[in-house]
Specification:
The structure holds 2 protein chains of 2 kinds.
Chain A (H helix, E strand, L loop, with lengths): L2 E13 L5 E9 L2 E7 L1 H4 L3 E6 L9 H9 L7 E5 L11 E2 L9 E7 L4 E3 L1 H5 L35 E3 L3 E13 L4 E5 L9 E6 L12
Antiparallel strand pairs in A: 1-2, 1-12, 2-11, 3-4, 3-6, 4-5, 7-10, 7-12, 8-9, 10-11
Chain B lengths: L2 H9 L12 E10 L2 E15 L6 E8 L2 E8 L5 E8 L29
Classes of the chains: A mainly beta, B mainly beta.
């Protein structure tokens, strides 16, 4: 298990060594400093806190600065805790994309793009009504359910705020890890807007691909 | 230059001959056959050249054994060994979709003699 924080740069396509042309999301991942090692004895649980991204010195409060200083690391913009994949990760060290190699499978967490107040068609993939021939139900949600119930069932899919949710895309393939430029190229799309924070970690999915000979 | 443009640029080949729709080209591509890799040549008329950057592709058409065959290659793919220009053609369109419907004499393309 490995973890890293990064910034979504955008998408493109790259040729792999075996000649495939694959769509990739480019992530500027790390270097992440390990701000703190949380322990069972002191904090009640085991975790590591990774930090990523530049921050203005003036934006760091003295209290925060002190927290960073404790383990001798520079203040960063984002800090996230990880409770898995923490073996051998010591406070004060740095995590880079070198932790990942092509072929690895990862899960990516991001905050999905905001769509504002959206209707059922965009938000829940409703079919919508006819466009013409006297149809008066164009993009409306139509029926709202059983009239016998006399109430609206909780959790029914309605128009409303869509996006800006914590979203995880599982089991993405690492196509390339560029240590020189701190880039991670993952196959396929990743949740969130460009420049959005993404969390990359080893996948929780069972690895069905044949294990490489060690 | 931003990272995406940089990545795209890195993948592009340095020397791609100057050719356009109507020209006749030879495309040498690597094919995997019976576990072995060899280079296969495909010669024909360029009907479409489209896309930019690393995504650029070319569609080549030829009539083989009386059957029209069109193949599309990604110009910057490592599986495309090289592309050679064999003849210039004189055409007035950038996409020669009309060639698909023409057979025999009607499908000919005049050769361009003068320097471009």
């Amino acid at each position: 298990m490995k973890n890293i924080l990064g910034r979504k740069v955008g998408m493109t396509s790259v040729f792999t060594e075996d000649g495939r042309y694959v769509p990739v999301t480019v992530i500027e991942a790390g270097p992440c400093t390990v701000v703190e090692r949380r322990t069972k004895e002191k904090h009640g649980y085991e975790a590591v806190a990774l930090a990523f991204g530049d921050v203005r010195k003036a934006g760091v409060t003295r209290a925060l600065a002190g927290h960073y200083k404790k383990n001798g690391v520079e203040p960063k913009r984002y800090v996230r805790e990880f409770r898995t994949g923490i073996d051998g990760v010591e406070a004060g060290t740095t995590v880079t994309v070198e932790a990942f190699s092509p072929g690895d499978r990862v899960d990516v967490v991001g905050i999905s793009k905001g769509h504002g107040f959206s209707g059922g068609i965009k938000r829940h993939n409703f079919s919508g009504g006819g466009a013409s021939h006297g149809s008066m139900i164009h993009r409306q949600p139509a029926s709202n359910g059983d009239t016998n119930a006399g109430r609206t069932v909780k959790g029914s899919r309605r128009p409303g705020h869509f996006g800006v949710d914590r979203t995880t895309h599982q089991n993405l393939e690492v196509i390339r890890a560029d240590a020189e430029r701190n880039l991670l190229l993952l196959r396929g799309p990743v949740p969130g807007p460009k420049n959005g924070l993404v969390i990359v970690k080893s996948t929780v999915k069972p690895n069905r691909a044949p294990a490489e000979a060690k | 230059m931003n990272v995406i443009d940089l990545l795209n640029k890195e993948q592009q080949k340095d020397a791609v001959p100057d050719f356009r729709a109507g020209d006749t080209v030879k495309v040498y591509s690597k094919v995997l056959e019976g576990g072995k890799e060899r280079i296969q040549m495909f010669e024909g008329v360029v009907t479409v050249r489209k896309g930019g950057s690393a995504n650029e592709s070319v569609t080549v058409r030829r009539v083989a054994h009386g059957v029209g065959v069109e193949k599309t290659f990604l110009i910057h793919s490592p599986r495309v060994e090289r592309i050679e220009l064999s003849k210039r053609g004189s055409v007035r369109r950038s996409r020669l979709y009309y060639l698909t419907e023409k057979i025999g004499k009607a499908a000919r393309i005049k050769e361009k003699k003068a320097a471009r």
